[in-house]
Specification:
234 residues, alpha+beta, five-stranded antiparallel sheet, two-stranded antiparallel ribbon, 8 helices
Amino acid sequence: MNRTDRLYALVEELRAVAPRPRSAQRLAEHFEVSVRTIERDISALQQSGVPIYAETGRTGGYCLDKARTLPPVNLTPGEAVAMALALRRLDGTPFRSVAGSALRKLVAAMQTDDAAAAEELAARVHLFTDEDEPTTAVPRPVADALSTRRVLRIAYADREGALTTREIEPLGYVGKAAQWYLIAWCRRRDAVRVFRTDRITSVTVTAETPPHRELRQEDLDIPAGKIRQLVLVG
């Protein structure tokens, strides 16, 4: 069994017995490898986001949080390539940093033969590098602003280059291929403001959790028809 197949089989073995643990020794015997190899495999799975944790004690071992994992994804190779293509287009967006892990999870969750067919199909797809519309990386604290739910202290340069320091409460994002903006409640202005991410020169994540605020489309002050809201299924 190659390593890719073993990693997939490890997850399925732990899923089958969850929430009970499996010791590294028992897993090593089952897969006919060393305990050290199992520990390296478990570490690789944990780093890729699989919710595996160690349970100590005489009957301890490795456990899988079954509620946070999915059974094999029955995507066709074409569907997988379509999703990979969409994820590869995330450069310059607040979600670029998590796109790679999402793609790895997608491939790892597929049946082995479907994953191989998807990789063969993907190798036949080539993308132009658009040098006319360079993308600007979104700072990681800004990219994580909505999920961390903390007040940010930023230094922001206006169009003339003048710097101000502000405390803001992140509310959302708006953007297009070449440029993204952070929507936030600005405590300096006591109102909703939109900040170009490439003008945020420094970011400090504070320990303060902001109060809940609704983000209405009219708060964006963008003409109707110029933007559309993202939906997961549509």
